[in-house]
Specification:
It is a single chain. With about 260 residues, this protein is α/β, with parallel strands linked by helices. It has one domain: NAD(P)-binding Rossmann-like Domain (Rossmann fold, 3-Layer(aba) Sandwich). Helices cover about 50% and strands about 15% of the residues. It contains 9 helices and 7 strands; from the N terminus they run E-H-E-H-E-H-E-H-E-H-E-H-H-H-H-E. It has a 7-stranded parallel beta sheet, sandwiched between helices. Helix 1 packs parallel to helix 2, helix 1 crosses helix 9 and helix 4 runs parallel beside helix 5. The protein is globular. The C terminus is likely disordered. It binds NADP nicotinamide-adenine-dinucleotide phosphate (NAP). The site of NADP nicotinamide-adenine-dinucleotide phosphate (NAP) has 31 residues, from helix 1, strand 2 and helix 6.
Length: about 260
């Protein structure tokens, strides 16, 4: 077990499954205490159990709740603040919905996507960055998507593309704002990863989300092009712990193919 992050506490949103669960496990293997957040308590408990067996003696804390619920988010942040300092924040929780022709998308659905994909990362970051600045060290990573670099390539995913472009602009802007403080901010495009999010897209009605989009996700899956969440997480950990450990304002791009 490595201990590069020994003594650090990492807050991981969307840690119940998929990429978030794998990154949380990677952070714990690197020695960090981890705090896991998502809505589904059973999935969080599963991630916590996996981490405890993979990293005996690790410190794992679970907070379940909908991060778009202001009251619940405030309560979680209050509890975490009382428990101690957050050194690493990975904003990973997101939705790929709504999918479909832009003219068919209700403004409320656009707002809901921006809430979890953009507003929540802003809010989580705003809550923990002052403590990181005071400590002179902190790491914020926003999980993006390669669609942010190629927005025209995910037809029927207009809202998702817009949220991921927004989170990348936010990351770069905040990195510039915090330059010299010891707090770095980067975005990570995790590649095409075999997760529930990808499975959900493949299972949708092609009439509703557009057959081009659905067929592309199915053919990438059938071609075996998707990587595992653990492979993707390992690449992010390579950035965080390796030559890029002090890099800020970067868009770390695992693959340049369009995924989700
Ligand atoms: N999979 C890919 O190929 C791919 C490609 C590019 C980018 N990404 C990005 O990678 C990240 C993770 O994707 P994934 O594929 O692992 O997705 P996933 O399997 O759907 O997992 C998403 C996680 O976020 C949590 N979450 C969602 N809404 C939440 C909310 N309102 N409050 C709290 N937690 C919430 C989910 O748990 P609950 O539902 O229990 O809350 C779950 O733990 C996302 O930012 C995604 O956009 C994925």
């Amino acid at each position: 077990m490595t201990t590069e992050l020994g003594g650090k506490t990492a807050l991981m949103t969307g840690a119940g499954r998929g990429i978030g669960a794998a990154i949380a496990t990677g952070l714990a293997r690197a020695g960090a205490d981890v705090v896991l957040i998502a809505r589904t308590a059973e999935q969080l408990d599963e991630t916590a159990d996996t981490i405890r067996s993979a990293v005996p003696g690790s410190s794992v804390r679970v907070e379940h709740g909908d991060l778009t619920d202001l009251e619940r988010r405030t309560a979680i942040l209050h509890t975490l603040r009382s428990a101690g300092h957050i050194d690493i924040l990975i904003n990973n929780a997101a939705t790929v919905e709504p999918l479909g022709a832009t003219a068919q998308i209700a403004p409320e659905a656009v707002q809901a996507a921006f809430e979890i994909n953009v507003v929540v990362p802003f809010a989580m970051t705003a809550a923990v960055v002052p403590g990181m600045v005071d400590a002179g060290w902190g790491r914020v990573v926003n999980i993006s998507s390669s669609v942010a670099g190629h927005p025209a390539s995910m037809i029927s995913g207009n809202v998702y593309a817009a949220t991921k472009a927004a989170i990348e602009a936010h990351s770069r802007n905040l990195a510039a704002e915090l330059a010299g403080t010891g707090v770095t901010v980067n975005a990570y495009r995790p590649g095409g990863v075999d997760t529930a999010m990808q499975g959900w897209i493949r299972g949708q009605d092609p009439q509703r989300i557009g057959s081009r989009l659905r067929d592309r996700f199915i053919s990438r899956y059938e071609a075996g092009d998707l990587i595992s969440a653990h492979e993707s997480a390992a690449r992010l950990l390579d950035h965080l712990l390796g030559a890029d450990a002090n890099t800020t304002g970067a868009i770390w791009n695992l693959g340049d193919t369009i995924t989700a």
